[in-house]
C-alpha cells in the first residue's frame, strides 16, 4: 500500500517532461521570440515541481492513515469513456470522408445506442430533427458549406 | 445618442438574438451538467455570421439566463443547475417539500429580475467612469493589467491554486503558438500552415468545456444504475404557493434586495469571485438581517430571495472589468470576451469613448437588461412545466451536444483542422477535470498572455535608456496594478474564508 503514489505526482512528471520539451524548442528561436516562451516553460516546470511536492504530501497523508491514495480514474469507467472518445474521433474522420450529413446520420444513433438509449422512436426522431435543424441553421440560414 | 441606441437595439436580428439567448440559456441552465460557460461556447459559432450587437445580446442573455435557469432545479430537485444556485437549493428545496415550490420559484424570479436589472444599471453607470480612468493607460499599464489578470487564475481554482496556475500557464503556451507579433517568427508551428495564426480560440473552448464534459458524463454512465430519468418530486408533494409577492411584501423585502444586489455587483467586479460566492454572500446577508434566524435552512423565503438577487447582480458586475479593462473575472466571462473579440469589439476604453463603438456597446448593455426582464416573463410562463426539461435524460442529449460542438468548431474557419483541435482539447480537458485541474484559466492564459507579451515588448521599446524595472516604477498606475496583483494572489484565501463563514451561519 505504501508503494502507491498520488496521481498528482505522475501528472507533475508529465508536466515537467512537457516543460523540458517546450524549453528545448524555445532555445532554438532567435532572441526576441524566445523570451516569452522561455519564461512560460520555466514557470511551467516550477509549478510542476510544486504539484509533485503536493502529490507526495497527499501520498504520505494516505500512507499515514494506512489508506491507498484514492484512484481518480477507474479502469471500468475509463474504458467506457475511451470507447466513446474513439467514436467521436471516428465521427470526425468520417465527416472528412463521407461528408457531414451521412456521417451525422450514422453517428447519432450509434452514440445513443452506446449511451444506452433504447427507445427506437427517440433515436430516429432525435437523428432526423437534429440533422434537419443543422441544415436549417447552418446551411440555409448561416450559408455555411459543410464538409 | 439614445435614439441611435434604441434604433440599433430594436432590429429584428437583435430581438431574435435576445429571444434565442434567453430561451436556450434557460434550458441549458435548467439541465444539470450544462451551465453558462458551455452554453456560451456552444452558441458562439452560431453567432458568427450575425452582426456584433445581435451576437453579443444573444451571448449576454445566455450568461444571465443560464445563471437564473439553474435555480429551477435547485428549488425543485435540490440539484443546482449551476454552482451559482447552490445557496438557493438550501431553502428553495425545503419550500418545495412543504408544498410551496411555486412560491419559491416566484421569489427566485423576482430576486433574479431585481438583481439582473440592478447589475445592468450599475454596469451602465460605472463602466464609462472606469473607462475614463483607463484612458491614461499605455503599453506598460496594459502589461501590468495582463499580469494582474493572470493572478486571478488563483481565484478561479478553488482549493488548489497551484493547479490553476498550471492550467493558466498551459493557456499562455497555447497562446504562444503561431507567428510572433513583432518579428513574424513562427513558434511551435512545425511548418503546419493551420497553426500560422495560432490556435483559433473557439475550437479550443469547445474542446475544453464541451467535449471534455461529455467524456466525464460518459464515465459516470459506465456505473451501474447511473442512467435515470432524473429525480422527480414525490407524488405526495403539492406544487403550489403564492407565485407573486404582494406589494406590501415587496416593499418589506426591498431593502434586502438592494443590499444583496449591491453586494452581488461588488463581488462581480472582484476578479475571480463569481456567482457561487455571490449567492452565498446574498444568502448570508438575508440571514444576518433577519429577525428570526432559526427559519433559515427550513424553507425561509428570504434565503431564496437573497441568494437569487445577488447571483444575478454578479453577472452585471462581472461585465465592468471585462468591458473596460479586458479582464474577465470568471470562466463564463472569459468565454464571453472571446465572443466580443470575434465580433470586433476589443474590450477596453475605446468601447466607451469611440462614438462608433458606443453605438454598439450601449445597445448590448440595454439588451442585457431587457434579457433579464424577458427571462423572468419566460420563467413565469414555464414555471409549472419546467420540471419536464430537467427530466430529459442526459444520455439522449449528449450526442446532440457533441455534434453541435464539432460543427461549431468547423464553422469558424471552415476547417477540419479545427475539428481535430476540438477533439484533442476535449481529451486533454477530460484529464484536467479528472485530476482537478480547472479548465477556465486556460482561456484567461490565452487571452492575457498575448496582451502581456505585446505590452512587454512595447514597454521595452518605450523605455529607451532606462532600465525596464525603473521605467515601470516611474509610472504610478503600474504601481497600483502591482499592489492589486499582490492582493489578488492572496484573494483566494480570503474568498474561501468568506465562503466558509457564509456556510457556517
Description:
The complex is a heterodimer of chains A (147) and B (505). Helix content of chain A is 78%, strand content 0%. Chain A is mainly alpha-helical and 147 residues long. The relative contact order of chain A is 0.09. Chain B is mostly helical and 505 residues long. Chain B is 74% helix and 1% strand. Chain B has helices at 2-9, 12-30, 36-47, 52-77, 86-97, 101-134, 139-155, 161-176, 201-221, 247-269, 274-289, 301-325, 331-342, 350-353, 355-382, 387-390, 394-413, 416-434, 440-462, 468-473, 476-504, and strands at 178-179, 186-187. In chain B, strands 1-2 form a two-stranded antiparallel ribbon. In chain B, a hairpin with a 6-residue loop joins strand 1 and strand 2 (186-187). Classes of the chains: A mainly alpha (147), B mainly alpha (505). The interface between A and B is large, with 59 and 59 residues.
Secondary structure: elements and pairs:
The complex is a heterodimer of chains A (147) and B (505).
Chain A: H1 7-26, H2 31-64, H3 75-98, H4 100-114, H5 120-141
Chain B: H1 2-9, H2 12-30, H3 36-47, H4 52-77, H5 86-97, H6 101-134, H7 139-155, H8 161-176, E1 178-179, E2 186-187, H9 201-221, H10 247-269, H11 274-289, H12 301-325, H13 331-342, H14 350-353, H15 355-382, H16 387-390, H17 394-413, H18 416-434, H19 440-462, H20 468-473, H21 476-504
Antiparallel strand pairs in B: 1-2
